[in-house]
Design brief:
single chain, mainly alpha, 10 helices
């Protein structure tokens, strides 16, 4: 029974979150609704990490909390910039041509935004400027919910503009875009959870923590699974890997990367890197 519960936790909380998002979309300001869901999600995931940790040595300590809190604050500004840019593009380009029921349009929007998210993410794993921007997210040697925030602001803006612009140009409605991006954001946090929840067959439908831990592996042959939301594009383009264990997390040459926030923010622009 306990094992079954571990398989059911992930899909159950997603269904609950998306039901709340759908039911309250017209009654609560979207910003407040999304913020509430993020906080509920974080609280529950932290509880799981305390109750059933995947690896005890990966537990969040005080230092890890404070470092990622700083990134959370910094990236709130970057996140807003990305949304403002998307709104501006929406005003100029959206045609609102996709007129489908939400149970069709939201899954299609998730698939579309992850197509662009997949290729943006995959491109940031090539040597050069984009990797230097993205590498900050990979420097921690353990993975837990809160260090999903450890990302360079430029990385946030790049992903937001790329993903949201695609949905706007296609012509999805505002409600569809809200529900699809809410699902993606909540999924990203869940994929980083350091809790012993199981994927099983679910790993072929959505991005489970088992899949995303491999993406953070120091072994480059394992560091695939570029989408933390849905695995379909990884399957199609040959970057899907599904196995139980990952030996070590982080970058394979940590001595080449800074470990202080100011230097991390400047790292992409350093000469001779």
């Amino acid at each position: 029974m306990r094992t079954l519960i571990k398989y059911l936790i992930h899909p159950t909380i997603l269904v609950i979150y998306m039901t709340i998002a759908y039911k309250f979309y017209a009654q609560v300001h979207p910003f407040l609704l999304l913020l509430s869901l993020v906080l509920i999600n974080l609280t529950f995931l932290w509880f799981l990490e305390w109750l059933i940790p995947f690896k005890k040595k990966w537990k969040m300590d005080k230092k890890g909390f404070l470092v990622n809190l700083k990134y959370f604050g910094i990236n709130a500004a970057a996140d807003s910039l990305g949304k403002l840019s998307a709104i501006f593009i929406a005003m100029k380009l959206t045609a609102g041509t996709v007129d489908l029921p939400l149970y069709y349009s939201v899954p299609l929007a998730v698939i579309a935004l992850e197509f662009f998210g997949y290729w943006i993410h995959r491109s940031t794993h090539q040597d050069g400027l984009l990797w230097r921007v993205h590498s900050i997210h990979h420097t921690p040697n353990k993975i837990f919910t809160w260090n999903n925030n450890k990302m360079h602001p430029l990385n946030i803006v790049l992903l937001k503009i790329g993903r949201l612009t695609s949905l706007i140009v296609i012509g999805f409605s505002a409600e569809t875009i809200f529900l699809a991006t809410t699902f993606a954001l909540l999924q990203n946090y869940i994929s980083h959870v350091n809790a012993d929840i199981r994927g099983g067959l679910l790993s072929y439908i959505i991005g489970t923590p088992e899949l995303h831990r491999l993406h953070h592996s120091t072994n480059r042959e394992e560091a695939l699974n570029y989408s933390a939301v849905i695995p379909y594009w990884d399957m199609i383009f040959g970057t899907f890997l599904n196995q139980q264990e990952v030996e070590s997390i982080g970058v394979h040459n940590p001595e080449d990367y800074p470990n202080e926030i100011k230097q991390e923010l400047l790292f992409p622009f350093r000469k001779g890197v």
